Task: inverse folding
């Protein structure tokens, strides 16, 4: 059974940074790309970032490019999202999702507030 | 990339059928023709219920069906049940480097 569990969310001031983690189990993690998707309060889902199965190719939404960095450690079955220069608009739930978005975690809440 | 447009809310009585629309542009749907739908209860993981426009993952109720015509995709829930309440999101794969565009989300209420 595929399981994804995010952690690392919290309250941070504008301009601050945060690192999210997502631990995977129940599938061959190193064989799949992984995504981060977020949902701001009252808004729809928004794709944020993707890392290829081997961590070589990475892609970002324009709204986070240059501020967020996705990485992975296949030896720990984990994918990470390092978020820097955070703004109020980055507030929301952050979800990790497997390759074709066929499995998601329950999310972790990031609140950017002064 | 703008979000796909969904109605904010749709409601129906138990046993009825409802349809949620998801409207975009030709660039949102045209090249790959891969629309997915997700059911999301707040505080829980979003669940894939339709992929590749009209396919259901194993274990998903046959009451959920998807279709697409031109620049509008649709999700129909037949035989509405109380447990169908929640948020529903459409999503179109648009390839690299942006990967996915999502809809604005629809809240389904069972009266």
Result:
């Amino acid at each position: 059974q595929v399981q994804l569990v995010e952690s690392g969310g919290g309250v941070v001031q504008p301009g601050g940074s945060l690192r999210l983690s997502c631990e995977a189990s129940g599938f061959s993690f190193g064989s799949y790309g992984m995504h981060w998707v977020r949902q701001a309060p009252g808004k729809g889902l928004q794709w944020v970032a993707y890392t290829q199965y081997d961590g070589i190719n990475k892609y970002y939404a324009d709204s986070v490019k240059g501020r967020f960095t996705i990485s992975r450690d296949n030896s720990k079955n984990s994918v990470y999202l390092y978020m820097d220069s955070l703004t109020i608009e980055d507030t929301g739930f952050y979800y990790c999702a497997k390759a074709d978005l066929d499995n998601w975690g329950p999310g972790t809440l990031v609140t950017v507030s002064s | 990339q703008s979000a796909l447009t969904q109605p904010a809310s749709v409601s129906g009585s138990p046993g009825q059928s409802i349809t949620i629309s998801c409207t975009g542009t030709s660039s949102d749907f045209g090249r790959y023709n891969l629309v997915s739908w997700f059911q999301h209860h707040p505080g829980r993981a979003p669940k894939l219920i339709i992929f590749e426009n009209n396919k259901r993952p194993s274990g998903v109720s046959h009451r959920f069906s998807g279709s697409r015509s031109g620049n509008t995709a649709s999700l129909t829930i037949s035989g509405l049940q109380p447990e169908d309440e929640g948020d529903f999101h459409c999503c179109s794969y648009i390839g690299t480097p942006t990967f996915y565009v999502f809809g604005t989300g629809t809240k389904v209420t069972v009266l």
Remarks:
- The radius of gyration of chain A is 13 Å.
- The mean pLDDT of chain A is 97.
